[in-house]
Design goal:
Elements lengths: L1 H18 L10 E4 L7 E4 L6 H12 L1 E5 L2 E5 L2 E5 L5 H14 L2 E4 L4 E3 L1 H7 L2 E4 L2 E4 L1 E4 L3 E4 L14 H22 L13 H7 L8 E2 L3 H6 L3 E3 L10 H14 L8 H4 L1 H9 L11 E6 L4 E8 L2 E8 L14 E4 L11
Parallel strand pairs: 2-5, 5-6, 6-10, 7-11, 10-13
Antiparallel strand pairs: 1-2, 3-4, 8-9, 11-12, 14-15, 15-16, 16-17
Helix pairs in contact: 1-5, 2-3, 3-4, 3-5, 8-10
Amino acid sequence: MTKLLSMFPMMLCVVLVNSLFLAKDSDAANVISYMQSGCTHKIEGEIREEDVLRVKNIVGKDYIIFDEGGAFDVARPVFCLDSGGGSFIAGLQISYFFMEQGISTKIEKLDSCLSSCGIIFLGGSIRLEDTHRPNRTMVSGATLGLHAPYLSRENDLNYTEIQASEIFDLATFAMTATLSVFTYKSVFHDKMWVDPSLIAETNLFGRDEFLLITKIDQAYRWDISIEGFEPPADELTFRDLVQTCINFQNWSVSASSYDVSMNGTYERSRTHYLQATEPKTDGFFEVFTGGEYSQGCLINPQGQSIKICTFDSATGIYRGKCPSSPIYIDRLHSLDPNLEF
């Protein structure tokens, strides 16, 4: 994968020269130490090719080795991002560096991360001895916008057959590089780093438009954490429990969820399957969402967190083991997935 990314700038240079594509003249991004909002660094401004080395250098310089009880560890960097984008390949290279090194990403309230900045954001990760998974966070009120990569040129030009072929080759190479990075799958995480559905939807948007990540459904479906958006503190109703189950079942396989009040799932669960309002076993409520008692969840609300396990006797797919080894999720799973944060 590293070799593939290293080949890209050389190929890009050839195509840009031969096809007369011209990059805009502007300053590189501002890459700084930034001890705010839980971040250690921040990237601001336009992303340029030279920023790849600058990011690597500042991370290397600012790594903090500390001794806690005789054990040495590394304080993992968290990069806040506020950029309108820039170089596609620079964004992809920084994204891969973040994935590989366990560097998390975050977009603060009122900040925007668009285009190639969004590519960097998706590379956010946490990597320890026993885990390596995505770790990317949007604060409520932040903006994340994604679109397909494109080439810029200053004038309308006619291209020769060879030039057109080179441009096509570049586009193919760009997609290959993107898939090579984002379809990575860690042994500690059961999904691809970026789900193919997000890549597909992103590529439907051209240079002057964005796929904006604004809904709870989009964030949780595509492994993006939300900060600063708190659910009501009220006790969960049975409708909330059904919604929690449906959301968790869908988001676990990167599928879009739906409001259970709109399609009858809640009514069917309440009418046909709810036997009592009391928990069944060890504080777990039993919720059925499909089939004849064959699909559903065991759910145990725990303040701001929820213990959950799913069962599906038709497919044999089970997540978690209740009551001994449940999965812990947050209360945002109980909300209408179409809510904006």
